[in-house]
Structure formats: C-alpha cells, structure tokens
Amino acid sequence: MRHIYKGLALCASLVAGSTGVYAQEAETDTLDKVQVAFRAVDKQDLMGGVSVIDMKEMAKKNYATSSIEYIENVVGGVNGGLWGYGDYLVVVDGMVRDANNVLPQEIDQVTLLKGSAAVVLYGPRAAKGVLQITTKRGQMGDLRINAHADMSIGTPISFPKYLGSAEYMSYYNQARINDGYDKNYSDEEIYNFASGKNPYRYPNFDMYDSQYRRDFTTRYEGIVEVTGGTERVKYYTTLGYYRNNELLKVGNTKDNFTSRFFVRGNMDVKFNDWLSAKADANVTFYDAFAAKTDWWGQAATLRPHLVSPLIPISFIESTDKVSLGSVMNSNYLQNGFFFGGTQSNPTNPYADAFAAGDNKFVSRQFQFNTEFDINLAALTQGLMFRAKYGIDYASTYNQGYSNSYATFSPTWTNYNGPDMIGSITQYGEDKKTGQQYISDSSYRYTYNVSGQFDWARTFDGVHNVFAMALANAWQTQRNGHYHRTTNANLGLQLSYNYDHTYYFDFSAAMPYSTKLPAGNRAAISPTVTLGWRPTKDVLKDTFVDDLMVNVSGGIINQDIDITASDNEDGYFMYKTILQTGGWYSWGDLEGGAATEFQRGDNYDMGFVKRKEFSVGLRGSLLDKLITFDVNFFTSKMDGMLTRATSLFPNYFTQTGYPTSSIIPYVNYNIDKRIGVDFSVYGNKKIGEVDLSLGVSGTWYKSTADKRDENIEFDYLSAIGRPLNGLWGLKSDGFFNSQEEIDAAPEQTFGEVKPGDIKYVDMNNDGKIDDNDRVFLGRWDTPFRMGLNLTAKWKNFTFFAMGNLWLGGHAMKSDSYWWVRGTGKYSEVVRNAWTPETAATATYPRLTTTNGDNNFRYSDFWMYSTDRFNLSRVQITYALPSNLFEGSFVRGIDVYVGGSNLLTIAKERKILETNIGGAPQMRSYNIGFRASF
After folding, report:
1. Would residue 870 count as lying in a domain?
2. Are 922 and 893 within 8 A, CB to CB?
3. Which of these, 122, 189, 721, 889, could form a disulfide with 126 (CB 3.0-4.6 Å)?
4. In this structure, is residue 758 part of a structural domain?
C-alpha cells in the first residue's frame, strides 16, 4: 500500500501546484458517443470500468507511432494488462484484430473496457479486459485531404561495458587461481594484448565501437487521409508508408531496414430510411531486411581476444605463396584485408555481416469487414437489427540467401624482427548457391460474425430504455495448431435510466466452449450495475458539476485459462492420456511395453470464473476545473486448473520409472486481485495561456488465494503471496575463509570456496537448499502513474508526458552479471572478491566453473525497477490562418519533439542498458500536418 500512498501524495502535490486538474473528458469533449461492447453510448451515460481516449484530439498535440502508446499515461486501469490481468482482447472496429496493425493517425478513439460488466458481452475470451479501437470514418461535406509527414532520428542511450582483451585475460587468470588451477595466460601475453602494437595478432574486438555503427538511425513516415461524402455515402481513405534503418553499418547491415505500407478504406452507405451498411478494408505490407549476423547477441558473448575480424594481407610473407594463394582466392577480400578465424571460432560476426547472406521477414495482412443495419421501426419503434461479418488473413515468411565463407587463421612469427604471418590455416570455404530460400512460413485466418437486435426508446422524456439480444462468434486458425482458437456466446443486455439520474444495467452472456466436457460446455455469465447521478437531486446547484456513482458485480465464465504447459490449446484436458512407456516389458505382454498414465479423467471440469465487485466514481467540479474518474475493484479468478495431489490418494501416482499418474486436472486454484485506478485532470487559463495537467494511475495487489501445496515450512507457501513473485535465498555477505565455510550450515549447491555468497538457513535444519527460499519481491510493478501536461499560448502548443513506476523488482541474472565458465567479462568483475579486497568487494569470487552456489536467485542479485521516465515532449506551432486565405490550404501545423528523453532511477544504468540486443534509443523528430 505504501506505493499507492506515494503516488497519491504526488498527485496531490501536482494538483495543488497546477491550480486544478481535469479529467480525460476535458480533453475529449469532442466525443459525443463512446464505443463500448457492440454499441455506442452517450458519454454522460458511461458506467464504471470504462475509459476512453480521443485519439484525434491527442494527435493535434503529440505525434505517436503506436496505437496503444497513450494508454498507460492518459487513463487509469492499465498496468501491463487491465486491472491486473494480462491477455486482454483487442477489438478493432468490432473485429478481433492486432493493435499493432493500426497506426494512431487512423484511429478515432480507443476505449478500455476493464470491468466485468463492460466486457461480458464479448464472451469468454474477453474475460481479462478489452482494448477497443475505432478507426476514423467519413464525414459529410466536401472532399478533404489531410497530409502528415515525419522524420525522426534515434541515438543510442547506453551500451554494456565489457573488459578489453588484456583486462579480461588478467581476471580470467584470477578465476583460474580461485578454482585451484594454473594461470591460463602469461604476463607476456597479457602485455602484448595491452600494448596494442599489433591488433591483428593481439586483437581487442570491441563490437560496440563506433567504427561498426552509425551515430544515429533515421525514420521517415508519410500518411495521406481523404474524407468526405453526402448524406447517402460517406468515405474515409488513408494510405501511408514508413521506413527506418538500423544502427549497424558493418557490411550488409548498412542496408538493414524495416518498412510498412498500408491502405485503409472505410465507407458508410445509407440505401434508404431502413437500410444502411458499412464496408471496411485494410491491406498492410510489412518488410524487415537484415544481414545474417547476430551482432548484438554475439556482442554479449564473444570474448574480445579470440578472433581478429580482419587481418591485412600485407602481413603474409611474400615467399609464402601457398598462404597468399589461399587468401587471394577468397571472394570476400576487404580492401587488402581477409577474414580472420580460429578453430574454435571459424566464423565471426563481422565476416557474417559481409558474407553469410541476408534475410527478409515478410508480413502481409488483409482485413475486410462489413455491417448491415436494418431499421425495424415499422415493426416497433426503436427496434434495429445489426449484422457484422469480418475476415482477416495474415501470412508471414522469411526469404533470403544463406552463404558460407572461408576464414583464415594465421601462424605468426617474428624471427626477422617485425610480426609476420608464417602460414595460414583455412576454415570453411566460399559457397554461394544463388538460390533464394523461403522458410518459417506461417498463416493466421480469423473470421468474426455477430448479429444483434437493439431496442432503444425514451418514454415521457425521462424513461430511457435499451435492450440488446446478441449472438457473437469468432475463430482463429493458425498453422501448427490443430485446434482453432474459438469464442462463441450469446448475449443479453437490459438497461434503464431515469432522466440520466438513476441507472440499472443487466448484462449477461452464455459462453460455449468445446474445451470442456459435454454437459459443461455452456454457462451463464451475469453482471449487474447500478448507477446514481446525485447532481440531479441532492447535489444540484453545488460546486459539483457532475457526479456519477456506480456499483457493479458479476461472474464471467472463461476458458482462456483452460490450458497447461503441456497443452497450450487446452483441448481434451478432461480426458485420460494413456501411452506406452518404459524400456522394459511385462512377460505376459509378449514384448509389449508398459503402460503410462499421463493424467486421469475429469468430466466435471468447468469454466474458470472471474468473480468481481467494483465501485466507480466519475464527475467534475467547479465548472469542469477538476474532473475525475476513480474505480475500486476486487476480483477472484476462481477454478484455475491444477493437478491437485492433496485431493487424491498417493497411490494415484507412480514415482518410480516409468512415472505414471491418474490424477486429473481439476478446477481448484484461486487468484485474487484488489486495486484502484484513477484519472484526475484539470485545466486553468492564466492570461493567454491555457494550462492543463493530467494524472492517471493504477495500484493493484494480486495474491494466490488458494493453492494445492505440500510444503514443510509456512514461509514457502504461495498462499497470500503475490502472483508475480520473485523467490530466492537470502544472502548474508561472502564467505571470507575456509573456517567460515566449515562452521556454516552444509552447502548443497555445489563446491563452496572463500569469496562465495553466504546464505541464511531459514529453517535452521543445518543445510542450505531450496527449502531456504523465501519471497523476495514482485517482478511486476504494483503502482504505475502517468503524467501529461499541455500548455497552449497563441498558436503554440507544448505537450509533455511522463511515467512513474513504483514497487517492482528484477534480477541481475543475465550473462552480464552472472559471469562464469568461459563467458565474456563485464565491468562488474572489477569488484570481485579476492582475499585482498574482502572488505570492499561487491561481487563474488570469479570462477571458471558454473558457479552454481552464486548464480541463483537471491536478494544479492535483486534490484529495484522504480523509476520516472520523461517519455515524450513536443512543441507544435499552427501557422496563422491568414496565410492561407484564398488558397486551397486549410491549415498547416509544424512540430518538433523527442521521446524517451530522461530516466530518473537509482538503477538507471541497468534499466537503460540492453544485453544481447540492440540498444535502447532516444529519438527526436520533426514533422508537419497539413489540411486541404
């Protein structure tokens, strides 16, 4: 809870310092209707657990590259997932689709459906929330064209710091001595590598050096929108293209790029007073070209002294015709240099970039959907029938060329004084087949279909009634998956409000899932929401402009979690699996193998249930000086599958070889979540400056409420502990002598020597083992908050956006920190334990073994991920309108901005550094928007 107190305290200070805060609605006053499940509702009638972002308004002050870029910043309820759940469903224009296939410039609004009542109509696969994207549509009026162009550059923020060759060799010798071995490198060798006198004989291959990379990357984007129409036909069309390069400039990597071209068309047709239709289509072409080298991956593993990527031909003795002939036959000589290699490293990433070939990842997506709306007022006033159908087809594959090449390992001599190459050993050979390969082909096909009857009436001007009966289904087929991902449900919604003051809503679904046994495949998911707007009675004519209070509860039956690690699709988990096993056979089977049970039957298996209660508060104060949206929620995910050994006798399991068990999967585990989200906004005009400040955030706690456990010690129990927990040992410094080791509890994680990490014997049983593990912290972030500030003065608009994360932890468990064996050494080893540095060491002794005792999860390696990121700043200038009088130009805005500009954190260096991948980037962009 301390994290939410910190966040709310910060909110209060921000509010106090900004002369008011305003809710997202202040930013989104252009929204008259908000898209929710299968319909649009008046903004004033939104119930709890729903947030909306007006993307058109956001686009006026900030350029974005992702459709979901804002969701953690401008509304509450987002913490990786929605209300603490992952795997939310993405719906685009009523169809289940990918969020990354829609650009922000195409979007009208983004709606976050968080509460159970908000998502229930979408069926079981929506049980963890819905992110709903609505693209722009045509408007009545003359033809309008909007053009947008943007150019950005990206600069690397940070690179890992690894030791050079000589320093690595010195520390590796130290590791050898620690393990009781002789040194691996002589002092003379180390001196030669340190001297730099011959970098080809004594290489120091620094793969992060500026000679192998550009100073910055570039990205170009252009988008054109065309819209217009009449009362009968309205249209919206957009097309766009972007392309960016990468940081590397070695060999063919200089041509690496990613590009995307798309065309989208949305059309609305009104045939007559009772029939209208919509038809939408989208085509996307995405390509990513790269030379076949794992540069950043090998940068984290390839030790700097092992290979010289290039060696001058001039070092080969002129009398050595054989070596010269071998080298000169290479197809890949580089301005008088040849590729270096060794027996243990016959290739190197530098040579790969020139000669290994290339690969282009190709993705193609086609999407089409249509909707028919039939006005059945002739039957009864307010009755409508709506039908939707959509298909998506996506295919991906890799194409390119795969080549082999020769490298050469020199034998160096200096009998005449200077270093010369006395002989050459060749590894591999140059081969270019010229044949293009096609690999990793995959496809995905999705269809969506729904039909619904809507009835909406207002009686006597105050009784507002709405009813919906719905049938909804979608299905996705993927290559490599025998079973399709399916969602099918019926839905019913009954809503009433009296004069927009008192509200009642009953929304329910009847899901159907073939993952479950016959008889259990259908269920009812009911939700009820009550609302009250006291500003229409008891708070009328007060400083409270508007206030909506709502209470909601419901149970959603879902099959998302009908799955297991050995059954990703989750089908037939209620059935027994029998298979042959064992290396021996029974005599009466005449050579037949033994029979293994992998699990037993459970024909009582049912849906997992999301049981939820929430309270929402939304409103505005002081003539919209302050507006807010706050939701409290508590929920349980009840009936998660497990093989509960405590419910069955022990003879149901055969622990000897071959293992066998008839224990079935059962609905048993319960996960609990409780939290609050908030979105507080305010604006104030001071002179000619319009100021606005937004503070949005989420705090939640997730715990294991019920588990099948067989543990000896209470502190090992997962019950009551966070779901996203880090578990490990508690450290107690280093062993500084053999006497300390002898006096300590028995160590069971391999050989222990002075300089190794000492652990706490939690159960006092005289030994250190996995029973001494404890809960250390959460790897997720319990509290997240977004800040955004807008200041408008004359034709200038300033926008800034930041994010605060509190309460999360992570482990220093990658190869940068866990340095062992013959791994590459990072700068952290400079603080390694030795008898001389025992009092100041911050890193355990170096070892050439696996270091099993040291390199395991413990609080020694844990660090805080708390941080504040200044994620975006932009200044926009609208050119004066009088410049365009009498022309076809309606207006032009120009802007300049930057992203990922600043991180404030105790562990900033760790958080900003990528290991084994391309570096994090800080970007700066300039662009314009024009309307014609």
Report:
1. no
2. no
3. 122
4. no
